[in-house]
Each structure stands twice: as structure tokens, then as C-alpha cells.
Amino acid sequence: MLTPGATIGILGGGQLAQMLALAAATLGLRCHIFAPPGDHPAFAVAAARTEAAYDDAQALAAFAASVDVVTYEFENVPAGTAAILVDRVPVRPRPEALAITQDRWLEKSFIRDLGLPTPAFLPIDGFDMLEEGVATLGRPSVLKTRRMGYDGKGQVLIGPETDLRTAFAAIAAQPAILEAFVPFSREVSVVAARAADGSIAAFDLCENAHKHHILALTRVPAAVAGATAALASAMAGQIAARLDYVGVLAVELFVLETAAGETLLINEIAPRVHNSGHWTIEGADTSQFEQHMRAIAGWPLGSTARRGRIEMENLIGEDVARFARILGEPGAHLHLYGKGEARPGRKMGHVTRIFDD
Ligand code: AMP
Question: What mean pLDDT comes out for the span 277-290?
């Protein structure tokens, strides 16, 4: 168990690291951010920083020596980086969670092997396998690179007319998986934490709307049956337990309406705090960022009770120009990440609105 005054090392310097560092500070914990040279939002609020490449072994060793525990804000931490750190300092969540979630084939196989539902999927290691895979799963189906996919990147929808050669070229002929297309009615996510003692606490189920594959709006609670929400939460708990996970994780799921009612299919696991959990800063007794700090510090988890009906809107690109109007809106909680240029698709901030339940 860490004591107040301890130093948390965070790999990555984006808005998730920024919000983690802010939560840490309110608990008397210091943060040391490790990120490649650049202008990172988290630098503005952290006690210390290292600007170095993720494969800089010397910088990683010095970083490890200066912190009490290491965590991360993104899942694509290189395996070599994690290996250098785990020899020197506790890394939470365990790097095994990274290895599984940064490869869609390993991730989907892990979910299936746990006996949990996920869309049908096949490995694609060459063009011949893509032709066979589409013959098996049919059209539409979704081709996704195994690695480095996020916000819809590295992903191609194979529709009735899609030329398979073009689709394969669009993912640069990389190792991939082919997934059955899911005609979902809703996309939802569970943000949950597992403490070092194995206890688990989940926030209420979030319902997520995307624009151009980027999260635009989260509503809580999700408009699903209570049993569906409870099942999603139980699935996240099962995943966290199997990974011997410590910290916050998010599980993204599709809700499918069938004759038998609502069915859930797991899309992916994020081994970190998640954009769909930003509402917890004002909308829950404990924020996901504080919860993550509590977990990795070996402290008890906090209450996840929700404080109303919630809407969290992402401010993407030019949306941020509305900030002055939002400032004038009673009860709107505005967060700006301090990023420079409002490029299209860039997450510049978010706003949380809380209504009577
Ligand atoms: P992902 O990168 O896997 O999170 O996918 C990004 C988005 O693409 C998801 O949020 C869905 O809206 C959509 N998507 C991904 N996989 C499927 C699928 N198998 N069927 C239908 N839509 C999908």
C-alpha cells in the first residue's frame, strides 16, 4: 500500500494522463509523466516529467527509479518498454493486460476462451485467408488490423460491393482479423475498477454515440433493461478477475435486439481509464481517475454511486470554439485539455451535464 506523498509514474501525456494527475494530486500523490518529446496536456499538471522515446532504456530505468508504481494511459505501450519497467518497479495494471488488448486476435480469443460473447471472428494473415473468411462470415463484415487500431483506424467495412483487393490494401496487408458485422441497436461500455485485494466496483452502464468513429456523446444510464446492464457489469468483472487486473478498465459492448430480447456482444477491452467514463468526475461519488489511483496505490475503492442522469459531450476539433457559450450554461461542467490546434477529429475537451434522474 502506498502512502500519501508517493509518486505515480504515468506512461503517456494526453488528456487521460492529465485527468489522472489531477485526481492523484487531490489524494496527496505526485505524478511523473513519461512521454516522447512534445507538448503534452499532462505536463501542465504533473510534478515531474521525462521527455524521451518509449524505447529509451536509460530514460526508462531512471524513470522507474524515481517512482513507486507505474501505470499508463494508453494500451499500445511497447512490450519492450513494459519489460524494462516490470523488472524495476510495480506496473499496474499488469503488462499482460497490454499484450492481450493491443492485439485484436489475442483480445477476441481471450474473450471467447472466457466463455463470453463476442462477434464471430477469424484471423487474416494473407489475401487468400481474406477471400475464405468473407466466404465464411459473409457480407457485410469488418476487416480490422490486429494491432494499433483505435477510433476506427485500421478498419474497413466489407460491404456487398467492396473489392477485397482494395480492402486488403487499405489495411496495408497487415495481419488482421475479420469480424461478422453486428447490426447493433446501441453501443455501451462498462467502466470498472479492480482493487489489489480483488474487490471490484463498476460504474453504471454508459451508452455511447460515435461520429466518424470517434466518441461524441455518452449518456448514463444506458437505455437497456436492468438485467442487461447487470450482465455487462458482471462480464467486466469476469475479465478483470481473469487478468488479475489492478486499476480501471473499460469494456465496450454492442447491444443487439433479438426475438429473445437484448443480447450483448463484447467489442473490445481498454486496459485504462476511458473516454466514456469522463462523466464520473462530476457525476459519480468517485471519479474513474481517483478510482484508478486508489486501485494502483493499493487503497480501497470508492463509491461508484451516480448523481443524476448524465450526458457527457466530447468537444472534437472546432467544437471547442463553443467554449464561451458552455461557460455561460448553468450546471455545465467544462473541461478543456489545453491542446493547441483544433484539428479535425482531435479531442479538445468535454462537457458534462447532470440532470435530475
Ligand atoms: P473498434 O475500433 O473495434 O472499437 O470499432 C470502432 C467502431 O466501429 C465501433 O464503435 C462500431 O461502431 C464499429 N464496429 C466495430 N466492429 C463492428 C462490427 N463487428 N459490427 C458493426 N460495427 C462495428
Answer: 99
Residues 6+ apart with CB under 8 A from 81: 11, 54, 55, 60
Ligand 1 centroid, distance to 3 Cα (angstroms) = 41
Question: Is any atom of ligand 1 closer than 6 Å to the C-beta of 154?
Answer: no
The pLDDT, as a whole number, for residue 152 is 66
The phi, psi pair for 38, rounded to 5°, reads: 160, -175
CA 144 to chain centre: 17
Our mutation pick for probing the ligand 1 site, out of 267, 268, 276, counting the most ligand atoms within 8 A of Cβ, is 267
* Ligand 1: residue whose CA is nearest its atom 5: 152
At residue 151 the predicted structure's pLDDT band, cuts being 50, 70 and 90, is: low
Q: The whole model's pTM is what?
A: 0.97
Which tens digits make up the pLDDT trace of 235-275?
Answer: 999 999 999 999 999 999 999 999 999 999 999 999 999 99
CA 8 to ligand 1 centroid distance, Å:
33
Written as one string, the DSSP assignment of 140-187 is: SEEEEESBS--TTTTEEEE-TT--HHHHHHHTTT-SEEEEE----SEE
Please tell me the distance from the alpha carbon of residue 25 to that of residue 43, in angstroms, as a whole number: 13
Handedness of CA 190, 191, 193, 194 (dihedral sign): positive
Tell me if 190 sits within 8 A of 253, measured CB to CB: yes
**153 confidence band (pLDDT: 50, 70, 90):** confident
* Spatial distance between the Cα atoms of 336 and 325, rounded to a whole number of angstroms: 13
Query: In angstroms, what is the C-alpha Rg of the chain?
Result: 20
Give the per-residue pLDDT at 337.
98
For range 195-215, the mean pLDDT: 97
Is the CB of 155 inside a 6 Å radius of any atom of ligand 1? yes
Match 469522463 to its residue by C-alpha cell. 278
